[in-house]
User: Fold these one by one.
Assistant:
Number 1:
Amino acid sequence: MSETKFTPGPWSLVPQGNGSQMIGRRYETDNQMSPYGLRLVCHVFARGDSLMQDEANGHLIVSAPRLYAELDILVKVLSSLENAGLLNLRGVGTLNGPRAALALARGESDHG
């Protein structure tokens, strides 16, 4: 498993006047007039017919770094149990799905 290349979290959601949202990582600057900046990750554009869905998409995107970190911890803990022969979860089978999701987030596999 490689290191992540995406912008580290936490990410912030910055609503725009038109219903759109900018998402990025806040950082401090040396500029007293503008002490904070935003390392833009993405811009969620508001579409008139789906404003509620667009807002929900923004919240999901903002949570991505934390979701990744939490899933990574779970996979590591469960992997150690699996390697020790102590993991027997009915219906789960393997950790292949969560591992594939982490690899997808790191850009190590195709989207799909």
Number 2:
Amino acid sequence: MVSNITAMRALALLGLIVMLRWFILAAIVIGFVAFNIWLAKERRLTRDEQRRRAEAALIARAHQQQAWRIAGDDGGTYGEYPRAAM
């Protein structure tokens, strides 16, 4: 008797899945699209953060070279490269 009840439950579940197949498919597609939108947004945020860090490093280097130039050091003019001997 237990196997008949289990088989009937399995058939009922299968029937429910068949009846709701379009809703199940729609839920899967919506989940897939939402995940890809979220992933693209995260990648963009990561790329923007990397760009901000690169700009901050450039600004910091420019401030350092400006301070060197004000102090009279050639590093302010030539940056990290030595002055060419003439």
Number 3:
Amino acid sequence: MENSESVSNLIIDGFVPAFDELVAKYSVTTALVYGKIWLYSQTNKVCCISIDRLSQELNISYNTVLKHIKILEEGGYIKDDTPELKNRYHIYSVTNKLNIIYELNGSEL
């Protein structure tokens, strides 16, 4: 199975990773917001999804998503590539702060 196909299947199947480091340092909610951004950034190397959609998919409020995005930015886990935009989609990239090594179904992604 190729990398992009594996990630697409994860998104379709509703899997959201909650990385232990973020759960321990911040909260489960912060980890889940990061997990969604991380998942969406696997196919294009950036995450270009609305805050509304993130909030719907995670079943949390818009303001809660914004709060945790700010925490992740300040912690250096994600970067807003479009900080000048107001009231529009932002593009987020995941930094290399987390050293993520994982396997799925016995094959590395």
